[in-house]
Specification:
Blueprint lengths: L2 H19 L1 H13 L9 H11 L1 H6 L6 H20 L3 H20 L12 H22 L3
Helix pairs in contact: 5-6
Amino acid sequence: MSVTLRQFYKPLAIAVAVGFLYFTVGLKLGNDWWHDENYSHGLLIPFVIGFILWQQRDKFATEPARPSVLLGGLAVAFALFALWTGVAGAELYTQRMSLVLLIAGTVVYFFGLGFLRVRRHRDVGADERTDRSHGQRRQAAVKATRPG
């Protein structure tokens, strides 16, 4: 095997296994997205997630991989149990949420919890301006209520 084929062998095997397990779940979900107007926004979700991941790619590149085999393995096991119970009970929500948990558990298993953290950088200047405007409005309201 070449080096590039060895690099893609494990992720490809995992993707095929997940695709096999969640094939019918994906079909039902896609059918709901396509035919039910209440869920039609779901068609945009993969593109929005892809855009967010693309925007955060520099942070992912700098984040050191610290695999958490125990925590990730437990999450994957719980996701598979949730899939089984969802299929046995014909509960679509449980089946679909198990896919989200399985993806998160796989990420934690291979890369660690650092890749699941949401990093937000607040614009401090905007917060100061907002606080100042609230304070000015409050002072004006107090002056307006005082007699004379």
